[in-house]
Amino acid sequence: MIYKVLYQEESKEAPVRERTTCTYVDAETEREVRTKLADRKLNIEYIQALDEDHLAYEQQSEDFKVENL
User: Rounded to an integer, what distance in angstroms lies between the CA atom of residue 41 and that of residue 44?
Assistant: First the structure.
């Protein structure tokens, strides 16, 4: 399953919408996503599992790239 992860680069700062970035991760569970990203020390705001329709929409973006961790 593909998950969309919204995060802040700086883990010690309060989340600010203008600095929120996202990445896409292929994993079985949300816990697995968190485990895969743990070494990056990101401030994860939200992890969303993408259904087929939402994934198709996200794939239309030129920034869409699934990370293989």
Answer: 9
